[in-house]
Design brief:
It contains seven helices and seven strands, in the order βαβαβαβαβαβααβ. 44% of the residues lie in helices and 15% in strands. By secondary structure, it is α/β, with parallel strands linked by helices. It starts with 6 loop residues before the first strand and ends in a 12-residue tail after the last strand. It has a single domain, classed as NAD(P)-binding Rossmann-like Domain (Rossmann fold, 3-Layer(aba) Sandwich).
Length: 257
Amino acid sequence: MLLEGKVAIVTGGNRGIGGATSRVLAREGATVTVACRDAASGEAMAAAIRDGGGRAISVLADVSRRADVDRMVGVTLEAFGGIDILVNNAGVDVGKPLLETSEEDWDFILDVNLKGHWLCAVACVPYMVERGGGAIVNTSSVLALSSLPNSGVYSASKAGILGLTRSMAIEWGPLGIRINCVLPGSTDTDMMWVGLTPDEIPAERRRVDEATPLGRVADPEEIAEATVWFCSSKASFATGSFLWLDGGTTARSPNPR
C-alpha cells in the first residue's frame, strides 16, 4: 500500500472524482475524511469505505467558509491525530454566459473553486509541518487553458488554481510540503452531464468521445489514480507540477487538415 498510516482529507469527497479519490486513497491504506456539503452522501461514502475494511469519517463542510474549514480540520485531528494529505477537489459551476452571470454567481464559483483551495490548504499546512511534511493536490481543469461557452467564470477559477499551486509550491517546499495539480478533461461524472436529459446523454457522450484522441471520456478512478500518485512517495520530487488528464484533447490542433 502506497499510503499506509497516512491521514487524508478530500473535499468534495462524496461523489464523482472526489468520491473515486476517497476510495482509492483508502484502498492504498490512507485514513480518509470525506468533506462535502451533503451529509447523507458524505456519510454513505465513508460507510462504504469502512465496509470495505478502510477507515473513514464524513464531515459536513462548505470550503468557502473559514469556520467550516476549521471545523473540518478539527474533527480530523480529533479522530485521527494528524493530517498528511489534502486533496482540494470541491468545485462548482453555474453554466451561464458571462453577460448573464451575476455578481452572486461570480462570488459563489470563485469562493468555492479558488478561495476554498486556499482556505483548506492554509488550515492544514501547520499540522502537516508537525508530522514532518505532507502533500496537497489541487484540482483544476483543462478549462483553465481553454474554455467553452457558458464556462467563463469556471475557467477563470480553474486558471487561478494554477497560479495558486505554483505559489504554494514555492512557499511551502522548504517546509517539506509538496503541492501539485491535476487538470482533468471530460470525465464521466454527474457534473459532466448536468443540464442534459437521460435521452440526450448518449449522443453527447458520442460527440465528446469522438473529439478525444483516446476515443472516450475518463472514468473518475483514472483521475483519482493520478491524484493518489501525487500524494505518495512515488512522486517525492514532484512539486509545482501540472498533470493533464484529458485523453489527448489539449494536444489536438483545432485546425484539422
